[in-house]
Amino acid sequence: MSRQSWRVLILLVASLIFYATIQPQYIPLLLIISLFNFYLAQAIGEPKDWRIANKQWNRRRLLLLWLGIISNILLLLSFKYIPFLLNSIGILYNIPNILETANWVDSNVMAPLGLSFFCFECLAYLIDVYRGAPSASSLLEFTSYKLFFPKLISGPITRYHYLQNQLGMIGKKNTQALVKTPAIKFPTLEQITEGIWLIATGAVKKALIADNLGIFVELSFSNLQRAGSGDLWLATVAYGLQLYLDFTAYVDIARGSAFLMGLNLPQNFDFPYFSTSIAAFWRRWHTTLGDWLRNYLYFPLGGSRVGLFRTCLNLLIVMLIAGIWHGAAWGFIVWGVLHGLALVIHRLVEAISQQFKVQKIWESLPGILISWLLTQSMVFGAWIFFRLPNLRDSIWVIDHWWSYDGDVQFVDKVYLEAMGLERLQLVWLIFGVVVLMAVNYWFHRGLKLQLNWQLKVLLVPVFFFVVWLLAPEGLPYIYFDF
Description:
Layout: H1 3-20, H2 27-44, H3 55-80, H4 82-93, H5 96-108, H6 115-130, H7 139-146, H8 149-152, H9 160-167, H10 189-221, H11 229-260, H12 278-284, H13 287-298, H14 308-326, H15 330-355, H16 360-363, H17 365-387, H18 391-399, H19 408-419, H20 423-446, H21 453-470
């Protein structure tokens, strides 16, 4: 076995050990899924002898592709959505036995961690191979890609051909990869520095900022009837920031860990809260999921090439599926529909603006500020259904956003005792987080500057020390639920 093969094998073993510390019972299942998709993709791939590439062969390839799509979707449904479906049927038709079954399944069956990301990557791989991309020629390479532990649990969703070259296992068959990235053999000093820097910044985002915001968010949303309108607004904003910082922290740590092994994972966020349209938001929020939705749902449905009505319908369908993917609850469905409607409204406004040639209105400073405010109001408002997927709770919050005084003891219990802050002080702290994000945005996107590696080396131990000193007891990553 070559040195490179040993390196890939070590990555695979490390990934299996990592997952075994969390859910060892599901390792056989993940390996079986990987084997199934590996051999299915080889059967779907282009034939070595083009003389057999006829209609019958293509029909067989299409049937095999649908076999893979249905199998992966059924796997996802069986673990994550059976209780939700049974509950919905039981409530709709008032069947107690179905409700009892749903409760039993929900209590006794836990979905494999990262299953949604795992299945979406499998679907992308099969479709790419069907479209003409080369299938993996090495089972070791493919399983190392599928189980690569930095991205295994919560992404970023990484297409096989993105990591193929980097794993260095490319034979003659695979020289025409869909995504060309330079092969990375061993981490350089620059990569090691960047990797440690990303891990340190991720630790600050997660443990120092997101988790502290999470304490306030949890206390507020678990005591809804006691929180006043101002508290609910503050908790809504805090949750939007917590979710963003928590998820970006995970991606930073995942990318930093990959850098330390000489590999590069895709970025997943590009300052989405500074987007001035909902379409721009989805190009900059969870970008690997957005790319997946565009490439494997939106474009196959016809994209924007099928007329305005069909385009709007396609946007609604795609975002509905995005909502369902995030979780088995009506709140996630509502969240997806709201984003779909927002994209439809944006598309209609864009079409009207082009027809009447008034696009410059949105390019002016007042137009930019208004569009940013409308976009982020929609985004943060919709997060309520994400945080409280039970519609009874989320609708209660929306109904009490205005003119609700709440319990006078809420301030003492939550702000003073739990947070150790006055309400106004917490407002200023949240405002400070927003200002820091704006400065970071201006630094990277406006001035296009980066810290040099010497300064990063000096700041890393400071970051770790501050996290160790000030971070509260760790909260689980939010996206572990998805």
